[in-house]
Amino acid sequence: MTDADIEASRAPLIEHLLELRQRLIRALYAFFAAFIVCFYFSRHIYNILTWPYVRIVGAEQAKLIATHFLEQFYTNIQLSMFGALFIAFPVIATQLYKFVAPGLYRNEKQAFLPYLIATPIFFFAGAMLVYFAVMPLLIRFSVSLQQVNEPGQATIELLPKVSEYLSLIMTLVFAFGAAFQLPVVLTLLGQVGIIDSKWLSSMRRYAIVGVTGLAAVLTPPDLISMCSLALPMLLLYEGAVIAVKLIERRRREAEKAKGP
Question: Could you write out the DSSP letters of every residue in 188-243?
Fold first, then answer.
């Protein structure tokens, strides 16, 4: 290979790296802009995330404590980053798609785009499950363990820390949102022909073990959170099997329509 050939092959690589840099800068701009907005409204985000706790114990009894002077400030930064990821995700995903799209064929773009749209939808579904079901269940169970105003017995009152409560709910939201991408990933792999429904069915027993282990890693160390994540993931796995079967059926029908 001559020096001219090396330089010619190097030029497209540099162009791709420059484009990647531009896409990353735009994504970071979107994130920082969203971070500033969320920091301004951090108190409102805080009130939204603490609503499950307030709903269970009542507004008068809902107390969260801060154990050092800057805890609320650091918590506001965490909340702002949390909200910024949600708000900036469409921009980040769009920049990623625009970087990858030129290297895809037209049919590949058409196949990839629905999954790009499905990703935030499934993430949002996982977040809503945490907000309306998992957190209330966990809070209700924790409150039931209190021992207050019982004669002759020591008082055990639930006084969660601000940072610990918000870290818990944000961890669960990201864990459930990421876990709910399982059908998106499996269906995409089935769409491109890497896996099929028979393989997914044969791997069901391993999927049960894997999902249980993943739920144990992603959630806090309590049985309620782990089961709340594991059961929906198993249902989503079965949904992915059905979706891949439908993709295979449509593929066979398309091949029959083309004829020999």
Answer: HHHHTTSS-HHHHHHTHHHHHHHHHHHHHHHS-SSHHHHHHHHHHHHHHHHHHHHH
Q: Could you read off the pLDDT of 30-40 as tens digits, one per residue? A: 999 999 999 99
- How far is Cα 110 from Cα 113, in angstroms, rounded to an integer? 6
Measured CA to CA in angstroms, residue 194 lies from 112, 188, 205 at distances of 15, 9, 20
Q: What is the pLDDT of residues 195-239, one digit of tens each?
A: 888 999 999 999 999 988 888 887 777 788 888 888 999 999 999
CA distance 75 to 50: 13
Residues 6+ away with beta carbon under 8 Å from 206: none
What's the token pair of residue 5?
Answer: 């050939």
Q: Which residue has the tokens 């801060």?
A: 66
Report the pLDDT value the prediction gives residue 260, as an integer from 0 to 100.
58
Compute the Cα dihedral for 83, 84, 87, 92 and give only its sign. Answer: negative
pLDDT, tens digit (0-9, with 9 covering 90-100), for 34-79 = 999 999 999 999 999 999 999 998 888 888 998 888 988 999 999 9
Q: Assign residue 241 a region: left if phi > 0, alpha if psi is -120 to 50, beta otherwise?
A: alpha
**CA 85/CA 89 separation, integer angstroms:** 6
**pTM to 2 decimals?**
0.82
